[in-house]
Amino acid sequence: MTNPDSRRPARNPSFELRHLKYFVALVEERNFERAAARLGIAQPGLSQQIMSLEEILGTSLLDRTRRSVHLTQSGQVLYDEATKILAQADVAIVAVNRVSRGETGRVSIGYVASAAYSGAVVQSIKAYKRDHPGVEIELTEMELRKQLTRIVEGLLDFAFIRGPAPIPDGLATHIIRREPIVLMVPDGHPLTLERGGANLARLAGDVFLTPQQPRDVGFHGTTFAACKEAGFEPNINSTSWDFTGIGSMVAIGAGVAIVPKSLECVRLPGIRYMPLPHANVTSDLVVAYRKTEASPAVRAFIAHSKRNL
């Protein structure tokens, strides 16, 4: 007599998840009619699918000498493993759907220090994380031009920068905040005795301190534009990398600096901030990102930045 658990392997040794779903439903319902109703298929179709699964596996899964559904040893092993496989498949589907909706993943963000002073970086990320708690945020302070280069290279996803800046092909930008500019001067500077703010035209003989940037980039560009508006070309010293260094140089009398109003939160000894009521030039906070972005999490952050900042 042929052993029903030792059938010859089927010609097609593969099976699909639906076979396992049908089999698990049958085992759990212990009845073909109830299992077929649960699956939304006809009972003869379910019977055929179970027989097909047995043919694929080359072994009997049901003890057909009994009236009720009863598993063979092979059937019990398959049921135990099938429940694990189906559970893992459900987990995989949920994970894929969460990624496709931008609920999980990673967003790498660069920023210039002056953007952090404005509060925009923290405000943006905190609001985004409330809606996307499963997304990992990687935050790095970085020089403006390096951020743009790294976005192009795919090493960074999003940038908070200060305009003006040359934007590489393939990147998109939008201005999220236009900040008034103010003047940073040392204590004891003659302008501190005046009321109503500083007249930039009176500083034509002063040295203006900026970060180490080309003339048309960032605060070098903003300083040049503001001074040009006031009627003169500034004498610029760009030996410092950041505003902490610039503030220290201002404090020792090495020059003055044009900075965004939000920088007034930085209180270094020996410096004063003065409004520039006649200046129309602004310090623009800009976000940059790839025009064509594949990551749903990054796309969600881009949409969030446009909507909320």
> What portion of residues is helical?
40-55%
State the end-to-end CA separation: 78 Å
Helix segment count?
10
Strand count, sense and barrel status of the largest sheet are: 7 strands, mixed
- What string gives the helices and strands in order? HHHHEHHEHEEEHEHEEEH
- Overall structural class, as computed from helix and strand content, comes to alpha/beta
**Low-pLDDT windows of residues:** 1-11
**General shape:** rod-shaped
**Rg calc:** 34 Å
Query: What is the number of beta strands?
Result: 9
* Portion in beta strands: 15-25%
Q: What is the typical, i.e. mean, pLDDT?
A: 86
Describe the model.
The protein has helices spanning 17-29, 32-39, 43-57, 73-100, 113-117, 120-131, 144-153, 218-229, 243-251, 296-308; strands at residues 105-111, 135-141, 158-162, 171-186, 207-211, 235-240, 257-260, 271-275, 282-290. It has 309 residues and is an alpha/beta fold. The strands form 2 sheets. Strands 1, 2, 3, 4, 7, 8 and 9 form a 7-stranded mixed beta sheet that branches. A two-stranded parallel sheet has the order 5-6. Mean pLDDT is 86; it is low at 1-11.
